[in-house]
Amino acid sequence: MSVTIDITGLPHERISFCPSPLAELGAALHALAEPAHHARLHAWTTTTAAALKPELADRLHEADFMWRSTRSDILLPAHPRETLAEELDDLDRMDDEKYVGAALEISCSSRYAHGAPSPLVDERMRRRALDLAAARGPRQAAFVERMLADPPGTRAWVRRLLEDCDEAFFADTWRRVRVQLAADARHKTELMRRKGLAEAVADASSAMALEEDEQGSRIVVDKLVQGRTDAEGTGVTFLPTAFGWPHLFALHAPGCQPVVQYPVPTRDLGGGAPVEAVKLRLEAVAHPMRMRLCRSLARGAYTTSELADAYGITPPEVSRHLAVMKKAGLVTTQRRGRYVLHQLDVAVTARLGSDFLESVLR
Length: 362
Prior knowledge:
Helices cover 51% and strands 14% of the residues.
């Protein structure tokens, strides 16, 4: 299954990599709403959520279906701007039918790829939006009822909510991440210019690829959903995000310019490890003795002889266990004079799961 974006005949000048403050705010709001999806952002989500004023937290809860289980298309602009205010101004220029249909994406999830009428003009979609909102709670249901009854007033409410988030926490966050995102976008643009689109797409995510044959050219996004769209007459926009991992979003609504939001790998957030690497790591720590070795190696650097003495096994046995762990990328080695010291890479090990790391550090 995948999302396919047909780019046959599309000049590379219509394909852009650019950061978006609105898209990054949407990703940050999702991380706050679903912190379990984003263990690597635990410090940020915990600190930010604790500092939110109750009134703002309540309003975020009221509208959170726009970024919790899915990402509303209004939060993925096809034409990014320098500032959040400019992108919100662009939203204000969108007509009510399109805005409400995109904002209430929950109402058309099963028909998204085929196109669905706006709940403002279609009674069936209106009932579906109200039913799905009611299943999420009374406050969400009240919000959807207001949006359907008074689109201009509710749109103004949403804008104020996003502006208040900017004032409360996002402006400082954006200042910290925008340089990194802009640098990544420049790198992808230069890579596309020098080595071609296939290289730039693959560099953005290992889950994306450019396919070319006699039938044309396509960007294929590997996801557990099926969708297809055409970029003819528009373009394709790639939005880097520091908050997105592990998600890879592909806006492919009919009639809209395709947008892909891809996570930027950093040392703090980590990158997506290949399945084979994860398999090797799990096999490495599954052995009882290697799990016990992790306990020592997580606390400091040790020689083979020290580990053999501590666990009552021979140095060759220790070496064999360490070789398995090194192959899995869990152990680093350094030489200090005539001693060779081994230590657990805690950052890599932590990505296997906090329960395992806590058990060896307990």
